[in-house]
Every structure is written in C-alpha cells, then in structure tokens.
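agent> fetching stored inputs for the 3-phosphoglyceric acid docking request
agent> found them:
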Amino acid sequence: MTSHTLNELIAEGVRGRYILVRSDLNVPLDGSTVTDDGRIKASLPVLKKLSDAGARVLVTAHLGRPKGAPEDKYSLKPAAARLAELADFPVQLAADTVGDSAKELSSGLNDGDVLVLENVRFDARETSKDDAQRGAFADELVALTGSNGAFVDDAFGAVHRKHASVYDVATRLPSYLGDLVHTEVEVLRKLTTDTQRPYVVVLGGSKVSDKLAVIENLLGKADTILVGGGMLFTFLAAAGHKVAGSLLEEDQIPVVQDYLQRASAAGTSFVIPTDVVVASRFAADADHEVVRADAIEDSAFGASGIGLDIGPESASAFAAQIEGAKTVFWNGPMGVFEFEAFSSGTRAIAQALTDTVAFTVVGGGDSAAAVRTLGFEDAQFGHISTGGGASLEYLEGKELPGLSVLDR
Ligand SMILES: Nc1ncnc2c1ncn2[C@@H]1O[C@H](COP(=O)(O)OP(=O)(O)OP(=O)(O)O)[C@@H](O)[C@H]1O
Ligand SMILES: O=C(O)[C@H](O)COP(=O)(O)O
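agent> prediction call returned; pasting tokens
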C-alpha cells in the first residue's frame, strides 16, 4: 500500500485547516451508556495528534444501522460524550451531519478543537448504491472543510464499506491513512503472509449473511472453521435440523450446503456445535436448558425455544481445536454474551485463546467488547482488532474500498 500517512499531513502543516477524519465510533450501548469504549480509545490518538498540531477536526462516524433517517437510539451523543471525557482537547457534537448545526459549529471552531458530526447513516445517501447520491452527500461533507481541507481515514472497522464518508470523500480531498488503520493493516498483513498452521478461524455473532459471505474465501485458507453464534443455526438447518425460534437466514441455507460440500476438497473442515443452550425467550432471565443441537425443538420450550449460546460439550470441542492451533482468528461472540446466562461459550473461547501458544487475533467491535466485559485483558491476546467485517474481508484478500481509494 502506498497511501500518504497522517505524519505526512502533519508535516505539510494543518494549523487552522479543517481536517475531516472518519473514525469508527460504532460502540455497544446500553441505553445511553457506552458498555465498551475500546473503539473510542483507539480513535483518540489520531484526533489528539491533529488537535495538538492545531487542526480544526471534523469527525464523521456511524453508529448501528439506522434506516437513513435520524433515530435517537442511534445518536452519537453517548459516544461523543465518552470521547469528550477521555480527551484533553475540546470535543463538541453537532445535532446533524451536514445541516445548520454542523455548519454553525464548524465555522466557530478554534485551532485544536474537535467537532463530531451526527451519525452519517442518518442520511440515506451515505450508504446508497448510487454513486451520484453518495457523491452529493460527500460534496456536502467536503464543503464543511472550506478551501484547504484534507481527509484522514482512521476507521478501520469501516474500510470494507463503499460509503460516502469512507470512500467518496477520499476521491474529493487530499487523503491520508490514519495511524489506527495503518497499525491494523500491518498486523493483519503478517497474519496473511506468514500464516502458521494449523490455522483455526472461529466465527460467531449476529451479522449472519455478512459472515457467511466471507467463508467462501476462507475455504482452502483456514484449516478449521469453528461455527458458533447466530450463524450456527443456518448450518444446523442446512444439515436438515429444526432450529425452533433461533436466528435463521433461510435464504442462506443453500449457500451453507454448498460450503459443506466443497469443504473437504478445499482442505477445510467445519466444526459445528453438538449442543446448544436454548432459552424460552430473548431475555437475561429467561428459562434455559442445554439440548442436543440436532434436537432443539425437543427442549421444554418446543418450537418457540431460541438458541442463545453454544453448549458446554461444543465449547470444549472448540477449545481443543484452539489448543492445537498455531494461528487463531476469532470474530463474533459464540452467544448472547451480554446476558450472563448465555456468556459461557464466549468465555470458554476467550479462555482458550488466552491459554494457547498460538498467535491470536480477535476482530470486531462486539467480539472485543465481549472479551473485555468478560474480564479479559487486551494484552492476553496477540492483537485485538477494531474491525469485525473489515478484518475478515482483509483476511479473505478482498479489495477494501476504504483502503484502495487511498492507494496512490
Ligand atoms: N445465538 C445468537 N442469537 C442472537 N444473537 C447472537 C447469538 N450469538 C451471538 N449473538 C449476538 O451477536 C452480537 C455480535 O455480533 P456481530 O456480528 O456484530 O459481532 P462483531 O463482528 O464482533 O461486531 P462488529 O460487527 O460490531 O465488529 C452480540 O451482540 C451477540 O449478542
Ligand atoms: O461494527 C463494525 O464492524 C463496523 O463499525 C462497521 O459496521 P457495519 O457492519 O454496520 O457497516
């Protein structure tokens, strides 16, 4: 990659200039409380570097997946408030992204001030597939930077998105690679160029179709794929089992069947849970029991039971695979770890990763949040990546729009 770096931008001089920074502030919330501020802390150094150098910093970021219009629960307010607490420079939040509030507050910035613009996904043009729509939104973001602006992409977690604030602004402004993206790419590059085998990939989480898509390119690359989290039910359904009320993407069943058929010829084996924890409903205090993975509907909750974690037998089998690995990449919690009763599978995987001598990488906002909220320290893992989908797509060898657009 031959992108220009943040240090080059600082050396050119940023005092008094408006610098647009794409950060990943997509943090987990409980109401208005940030439950894991890892991504905010990871975003701080670049903002501080620019603030110290006298830039007027405009931060763009998304939170969650709102449907292209403002929604209170997806406001960046809690994230910006936490950023302000952690920062030793002034941080404000605009009430909109490119509207009156953004314009007024940005025009009032002093050198070294930071203004977070409200969730870019409150505007449907941010994620539009139509280049002209995205371009028009990017033009409005760029207009906030005046005549001498620049763009820094520091949102590693979003580099796989061809979105206006990630991709299109970079085609309109002199653009630079942020330090966080730089570090992430260096670590992940090592993982792809010098992969020590056996290479075990652990997949879970709830963004099922996103993650099933990456398996295509992991076939042949990973020796073993351990399947947990929400996607395990699509695997069970593909094997002909009933999954009651569990998370299931029916249209993905043929895709999974195809993977299962091609796996052994590709040299990759899947390990699918043999037991799961089934709950009466999606709640922290729900009744629950461990059942065989091929008999979920036989639980006390019948067809309304919901699988919310892998069972203990599966957790041990996964841990044994991890123990024998030389490289482990983990993305996506094994279950609904936010509820104590359904956190055992995720805890067992985190423990196995800390016990192994393998090089371990944990990728993803929720995965990183899981290991921290379950009491593990970042230092117990080889690397904790801020990117979930982004790190998976990088490992697949896919071209990432947010990186390639910076490549000169
Ligand atoms: N069986 C399940 N049913 C429903 N939700 C589940 C299940 N297992 C895990 N989850 C949920 O998956 C969520 C995390 O999934 P996600 O795919 O977003 O992970 P991530 O890749 O680490 O995060 P990010 O995409 O933010 O980087 C957690 O909130 C967890 O509760
Ligand atoms: O959480 C993430 O992985 C990144 O912030 C990207 O979010 P997205 O999957 O909603 O684009």
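agent> quick read of the result: The first helix runs from residue 6 to 12.
agent> awaiting further instructions
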